[in-house]
Design a protein that fits this description.
The protein has 161 residues and is of the alpha+beta class. Helix content is 16%, strand content 25%. The chain has three helices and eight strands, in the order E-E-E-E-H-H-E-E-E-E-H. It is globular, with a radius of gyration of 19 Å.
């Protein structure tokens, strides 16, 4: 917990381990033509939602064993639920993955979690994705596919899912 003036003003989240990073390749054009650039990036699960050609083009490899990512995610969520933690913003943008010898997932953006119903700070909502009035955030009803989430304001055309 981070306190300021005797009040909670935030909290610290551990940094993602290096195994959840990769060298992101991108193409850029210049006076001499196309060239490939590489930079270190977090391996957000959203990268894997693209077609195989794109995934390979940015420097990732995906294999059938990467289905173990989903098993690891299910195990992680099971452990969190057993201790009373509710994940309030589960999306491919908030999950990192590793497909090394131990495929796995690493949740990020943990400010949208509750522990036994308590939140460190007030829960926030993604713009254009608000729950209906009087619906509590970070609850099973507000989870993707839950009754409150299905009644939530749909995204604007062209906004990310």
């Amino acid at each position: 917990m981070v306190e300021q003036g005797g009040r909670t003003s935030g909290f610290l989240i551990r940094a993602a381990p290096d195994r959840f990073r990769f060298d992101l390749r991108s193409l850029s054009s210049g006076a001499t033509g196309w060239r490939t650039r590489s930079s270190c990036s977090t391996a957000n699960l959203e990268f894997l939602l693209n077609d195989d050609a794109y995934v390979a083009g940015i420097g990732l490899t995906v294999s059938e064993r990467d289905c173990l990512l989903l098993a690891d995610l299910a195990g992680t969520l099971g452990r969190l639920h057993r201790i009373g933690a509710t994940v309030g913003d589960l999306s491919p943008k908030n999950l990192l993955f590793s497909s090394d010898d131990r495929p796995g997932c690493f949740p990020i953006d943990c400010d949208a979690m509750l522990l036994r119903g308590a939140s460190v700070l007030p829960q926030a909502e993604t713009p254009d994705r608000q729950l209906p009035a009087n619906e509590e955030k970070a609850t099973p009803a507000a989870a993707p596919g839950g009754p409150a989430a299905t009644a939530a304001t749909p995204p604007r055309p062209g906004s990310p899912p």
